[in-house]
Design a protein that fits this description.
This protein is α/β, with parallel strands linked by helices. It has 16 helices and seven strands. The model is unreliable at 51-65 (pLDDT under 50).
Length: 419
């Protein structure tokens, strides 16, 4: 009896080893990269955290095709104001503060922070960094009003500032960290969803007022897939599975399939909406598209500068870095991100960014001549040896975010000293 149990255990052990080695080999062959536990665990954490942020809902409240987004009449969309723990009454991720309508005071420095997801990930670091400028701000308390929301792009930052100023907000400093969304989201994602490039991304789906039965059905499928994806991520994160190569590779494969299906259904939902795509735009001429993207980014910033002057705000503008411009030597972890996985084609991330960003940097002179405090941050990672890039789109590790914030804080401090 004991011999049979031992033989059974040995067979089970051999089967497990074969599964593990087979999964490892399949991963290396299919992905053409080495297997990394740390990278898999990072992706698991991200997938579990992103549940309820992917496109799912077409509710009777008509808030959004995407959970975590609601329509606003002045700047496209924002976060649901019902989430008062992290969102203010204007739908801005303002750290639980009730309102972004702050007033000038001799004891405070009011800072408005604008941008997309890169800026949103830098908010806490920025608040800490600016608070360290006591000698420049004469011990006034720094109050950071965060209006940085993932997916936002110009002219949404311009409209947010305009609306908050009209509502009576009084800022000492306005900071805008942008560039990537204005190029890639506008030039590729809006094209994919059939919208004018200068409309908010996902606009067609977000603005639906009476979704059809097919759209509602697709929305239900998206919701189901999202729940399944989150469940699998949490399951694979458990101690029993997180050290198994077979389990992690199986989760990774299913995650890719589910994400692809959700994207497919999201496009179907967007195409099934009313004709809310905005003024017709000819996407066929890629050179014209890039020139227009850069022009609108430049003019939006100039208008923010003019508006800031009108209200007595001091405006600082920063062009965010990315891994397609001034590329650093990649670490092993960065190489595993597959940074050039989307490099092919006229509307690829690499193509759009590599064409537009040099034009943006060149326009710095125009912005500076109009009195703007502008700094190009694209070269700041060039000699950095640490891992900086957080994914293959536009996000950074905490070290990368800190380097960006250090540049912002030092530039503001320098300009304050000069004035």
């Amino acid at each position: 009896m004991n011999r049979r149990l031992v033989l059974f255990a040995v067979r089970i052990g051999i089967a497990i080893v074969i599964l593990e080695l087979g999964a490892l080999g399949a991963y290396i062959v299919s992905r053409k990269q080495s297997f990394s536990y740390s990278e898999m665990w990072r992706r698991l954490e991200v997938a579990a955290r992103l549940e309820s942020q992917l496109p799912v809902s077409l509710s009777e409240q008509r808030r959004s095709e995407h959970q975590g987004r609601m329509l606003t009449p002045f700047y496209g969309w924002a976060r649901p104001s019902s989430d008062r723990k992290s969102v203010d009454e204007y739908g801005l991720p303002n750290g639980g503060r009730a309102s972004p309508i702050v007033k000038r005071s001799s004891s405070t420095i009011n800072v408005l922070f604008l941008g997309g997801s890169v800026a949103e990930q830098c908010v806490a670091e920025l608040a800490q960094g600016l608070s360290g400028l006591n000698h420049i701000f004469r011990n006034r308390q720094v109050v950071v009003v965060s209006a940085a929301i993932g997916g936002h792009k110009q002219p949404q930052q311009l409209y947010i500032l305009s609306y908050l100023a009209l509502m009576g907000a009084e800022f000492d400093i306005v900071i805008n960290l942008d560039g990537f969304n204005e190029v890639y989201v506008a030039g590729r994602d809006n094209r994919l969803y059939g919208s004018n490039p200068f409309y908010p991304v996902y606009w067609k789906a977000l603005a639906q007022s009476a979704p059809s039965a097919e759209v509602l059905k697709d929305g239900g499928v998206i919701a189901l897939l999202e729940s399944l994806d989150g469940f699998l991520a949490r399951l694979a994160s458990r101690p029993l599975f997180r050290h198994s190569i077979f389990s992690l590779v199986l989760w990774d494969t299913l995650h890719e399939l589910i994400t692809r299906k959700m994207t497919e259904k999201t496009i179907q939902v967007a195409s099934g909406a009313q004709d809310l795509s905005g003024p017709a735009f000819d996407y066929s001429n890629n050179e014209h598209l890039v020139r227009e993207l850069v022009r609108v980014w430049t003019d939006s910033s100039r208008q923010i500068g003019n508006l800031s002057k009108l209200y007595g705000f001091q405006y600082f503008h920063f062009l965010q870095p990315n891994h397609f411009i001034h590329t650093k030597k990649l670490t092993k972890e960065e190489e595993q991100l597959g940074l050039c996985a989307t490099c092919e084609g006229e509307t690829s991330m690499a193509n759009l960014v590599q064409k537009a960003f040099p034009m943006m940097s060149a326009n710095a002179q125009i912005l500076e001549q109009s009195g703007e405090n502008f700094k190009d941050l694209t070269p700041i990672f060039k000699d950095e040896a640490r891992r900086i890039y957080g994914d293959k789109t536009c996000h950074f590790t905490p070290d990368g975010n800190k380097l960006i914030v250090d540049q912002i804080v030092n530039f503001i401090a320098q300009r304050y000293k000069e004035s």
